[in-house]
Write a structure and sequence with these properties.
The complex is a heterodimer of chains A (about 270) and B (about 325). With about 270 residues, chain A is mainly α. Chain A is built from 11 helices and 2 strands, in the order αααααααββαααα. The two termini of chain A are about 30 Å apart. Chain B is an alpha/beta fold and about 325 residues long. The chains are: A mainly alpha (about 270), B alpha/beta (about 325).
């Protein structure tokens, strides 16, 4: 008999995600939003000039994913991440299935880490899928052309594509922190809707904190700020400071969330179902 | 035979705030037992089973299965399977996939047994359907299949016949009897005395979280005494024969209803039947009253209003059986 563990749980969590409609709701939105944006640009040229790269959407399709990232950071991508991460533990409570899996041959900690890996995998897949679709749709609408950086220089399309890929990677840092927070709420509330809405409220509140007088000094340390850190890559030379800060600030949100969630999960009584 | 009993509860207690759901429960289930954990709804049976499966942490005391503590590791449950309350599965997966999932969480040891288990519980033809469309009885049977694929030495079942139709109940009981005959130890909780009487050799009766009786079912029957219903051709004569007869007590007659009395043993009944024939009171009906054990069960589990009578009865039970613990 092979000893089951975290990877066994992870594989089956992915299998369960594939069988649930909410998975496709999030992934469908991740695909449809950039497609809708590309269609809008195709019908009515001229992008949103108030955001970085917005005024270049008619020049190169490679800025489409960057504009999508900018617009999606307030609630769209946090919502996609929360749809699964906020449900992945609470769903077991809802179905009464925790008792089914916790009385087999895997420890609670292995079940928890398997779920964390699955939630992270979904979030990563959703962001990369959305970015890929935005890139392809953008190229189809505006072409595979050189990309202007935030420093005013122009890079080749190939270099621009690499920067888009790297930007998506950096963008994942705060997204995974949001996933971790959603997992915490999912574990504590044992209710999918409360966890999803709570995560979204948390994300929106972080955006509003800086409006409060005297709290603007907190901005560099807010998770919401880290959603823009990828812009450091689009400077010449690259500005690594916001990216490094995004890494540790995101970790500062994610790790305590996961530690608290794990502690609650290990200690809780499974009394329902 | 392993040295450690399949189940050993010692001082097991679970409190939720000021409510004590399980109160200092100690009991032992021996290898080969079909052990009935009997009590009314809300008596703490399910909470006890959850602690045995490591799902709930006891406030004090401990639950051991085959000598291992399930609170420390699921390894303690290596030889244990079963379910608490209704078995639950992922409604968006089919029955077969649900069993594959739980088997994977056991190390993929039972792949070849899944089809066999589905066959045993007669779900083979619905194995490809999503569990969300299963009836309660089908989920109950899938729960049994999920337990069987582990090949457990101890099967823990919580109200296994709940929600089943009469045919389903009969099949469930037949399956439990068969598994027991094959050597599996079974512990089942139930609020149905008839179910426990039919299946179990030993029983613990729980009331408000406390064990009020633990022992052999036969001993419990003996403690309940043998109440007999009697009709004769001349009940007035029969009453005189019954009066002050050795081994006969608690003689009552209400109007035209049959006489009822308690007999110490079957020998006393045999002597009585001869005495009645000699007296000319011909026996028209002489039959044991089936309600006796049920009466004792209700007294043990509900006798709040007559604490003195309950204490007296418990003393009688203790005298006869050496219990309760």
């Amino acid at each position: 008999m092979s000893r089951p563990g975290t990877l066994t749980v992870y594989r089956w969590e992915l299998r369960k995600l594939r069988a649930q409609k909410r998975t496709y709701l999030g992934l469908g939105a991740a695909v449809l939003v950039p497609v809708a944006f590309a269609i809008a640009v195709a019908i009515q040229p001229g992008g949103p000039t108030e955001v970085p790269f917005g005024s270049y959407v008619d020049d190169t399709g490679l800025v489409f994913p960057l504009v999508t990232l900018l617009f999606g950071s307030i609630w769209f991508y946090p919502l996609i991440a929360a749809l699964v991460s906020g449900d992945i533990v609470a769903n077991e409570d809802n179905n009464g299935t925790l008792k089914t899996i916790l009385t087999r041959s895997v420890e609670r900690s292995q079940v928890f880490f398997g779920k964390v890996l699955a939630a992270f995998s979904y979030s990563i897949f959703a962001i990369l899928l959305s970015g890929t679709v935005a890139t392809v749709a953008g190229i189809l609408v505006s072409g595979f052309n050189p990309v202007p950086t935030l420093s005013g220089t122009i890079v080749t399309p190939e270099h621009g594509l690499a920067l888009v890929a790297a930007s998506l990677g950096v963008y994942l840092l705060p997204v995974l922190a949001i996933s971790s927070f959603a997992l915490l709420l999912s574990t504590v509330f044992r209710n999918s809707a409360a966890a999803v809405v709570g995560t979204l409220m948390f994300s929106l509140l972080l955006q509003l904190v800086v409006i409060i007088p005297g709290l603007d000094g907190l901005q560099p340390y807010l998770l919401s700020t880290q959603f823009n850190s990828w812009q450091g890559l689009l400077r010449t030379p690259a500005d690594w400071e916001p990216i490094i800060r995004a890494a540790w600030v995101s970790a500062a949100y994610a790790i305590p969330s996961l530690v608290i969630a794990l502690t609650v999960f290990l200690r809780r009584d499974v009394a329902g179902g | 035979m392993s040295e450690q009993p399949p189940v050993a509860l010692r001082g097991l207690t679970k409190q939720y705030g000021r409510i004590t759901a399980v109160d200092d429960v100690s009991l032992t289930v021996n290898e080969g037992d079909v052990f009935g954990y009997l009590g009314p709804n809300g008596a703490g049976k399910t909470t006890s089973l959850r602690m045995m499966l490591g799902l709930i942490t006891p406030t004090s005391g401990d639950a051991r299965v085959f000598g291992h503590d399930p609170q420390k590791s699921v390894d303690a449950l290596a030889d244990v399977a079963g379910f608490v309350e209704a078995p639950r599965f992922y409604p968006y997966l089919d029955g077969m996939t649900n069993l594959r999932l739980v088997d994977a969480l056991d190390g993929n040891d039972a792949k070849s047994r899944i089809a066999e288990a589905l066959d045993v519980v007669e779900l083979s033809d619905r194995a490809g359907d999503k569990v969300g469309g299963y009836s309660h009885g089908m989920r109950q049977r899938l729960g049994i299949a999920a337990a069987l694929i582990r090949r457990p030495k101890l099967l823990l079942l919580d109200e296994p016949a709940t929600g089943l139709d009469p045919g389903g109940m009969r099949d469930m009981r037949a399956l439990i009897a068969r598994l027991s005959a094959e050597g599996m130890t079974v512990m089942l909780s139930s609020h149905l005395l008839a179910e426990v009487e039919e299946l179990c050799n030993r029983v613990a009766i729980v009331r408000r979280g406390r064990i009020v009786y633990e022992g052999e079912l036969d001993e419990l029957r003996a403690a309940a005494g043998l109440t007999i219903r009697l009709r004769t051709s001349d009940d007035e004569v029969a009453l005189r024969v019954l009066a002050d007869r050795r081994g006969i007590s608690d003689v009552v007659r209400h109007g035209a209803a049959p006489i009822q009395f308690r007999a110490a043993d079957e020998a006393a009944i045999g002597e009585l039947s001869r005495a009645l024939a000699d007296s000319g009171a011909l026996i028209l009906e002489l039959a044991p009253s089936a309600a006796t054990l049920e009466d004792l069960f209700f007294e043990l589990t509900e006798g709040e209003g007559d604490a003195e009578a309950e204490a007296k009865r418990l003393d009688e039970v203790a005298d006869l059986t050496g219990g309760p613990e």
